[in-house]
């Protein structure tokens, strides 16, 4: 065979049209395949870069809005500083008022938006079951409302808005310049993953989120545009957002055999918890109030959160400070145990009221406190490991299982903290076991569980 060359079969054709001397095809390596139904044309690459820039700018604008609202509600630097500390420093009345305001704004805003503004605003649904079409006005309105209520203290994630607007950017560009539906879906998915990447400074994690969660395939024709878009959006967002890790005070933990044993036992347990949490997300998503009840439901839910927040200010916001405390091992185990129950319950209460927001950080923070509790108990039998190391592994396992994406979950926690590399083996095992157990029990994720009620026959799965 050596010495004889033949024509290449890949589409589109590569620059070098003839095979190597052995005559074997490049596509015999499974990931070196053709572009499929979404050709990576020059036009597509240009639009991809523009999508990344637009996503980064939207991420900046949305975070500016979030920080401004938080500062207005809880004092200067509340948005970019220690949000939980600012909340805890306020009087009981001053702590409750912003959430009640959020309930009024959210209830009226989402009621009017959903009734009078047409268009799709579920980026996951349009990628998985649609043609990648999203409505600009609907998406922008929903994103703005989401960041306002999160800034005022609602227990939901902040990443849903930039994720949505990243998808909207891709949709608008693809529609204006006539890309095919498969190309539009790919561009929308890349923009959505880039939205997550730019606000948390996690370009690798955002790219893996795109391919593992939104597209479900880790191939070069998918991974390359996902990486480019996430990196472009993250770089663009550096004009305002910090270039360092989101969690800046996480210690550099070392490896200890106790961590490996803990991962083998705790990973499956966290997988069971994740499956239950996902089912709860699915239930509240399917039973959101309709009609005039949707006007008052956010106010009632946020009022309940405000009441609980008098005793547990950690419940306010997306849970970032709660996770950071667990990573530092700075808190009583009983408090972490209480937060491990209350945080997912109040996050689901907010979602069930009709609020639009993310689940990424609430899920991660729940895993962090759960990991700290399980680690504290394990340390009674095998001491020698800092509590924060278990919290870090618990966060990775919970978000991996909740997203049904172990690679993305692992990469995201490493990028968010710039720590944990010495824990790679036990953390990877915890992620794999937790994800596998959740898949075995159920298989839904925090994203598929929120899809709208199926209206055309029986859905697969």
What series of H and E elements makes up the topology? HHHHHHHHHHHHHHHHH
Structural class: mainly alpha
CATH homologous superfamily descriptor of the largest domain = Clc chloride channel
Biggest sheet, in brief?
none
Number of domains: 2
User: Regarding quaternary structure, how should these chains be classified?
Assistant: single chain
State the shape.
Answer: globular
* Number of helical segments with 4 or more residues: 17
Taking all Cα atoms into account, the compactness measure Rg is 22 Å
Strand content: under 5%
For the record, the CATH class of the largest domain is Mainly Alpha
What portion of residues is helical?
55-70%
Strand segment tally: 0
Give the name of the CATH architecture of the largest domain. Answer: Orthogonal Bundle
Chain-averaged pLDDT: 94
- The separation of the N and C termini measures 46 Å
pLDDT < 50 stretches: 456-460
CATH fold annotation of the largest domain: Clc chloride channel
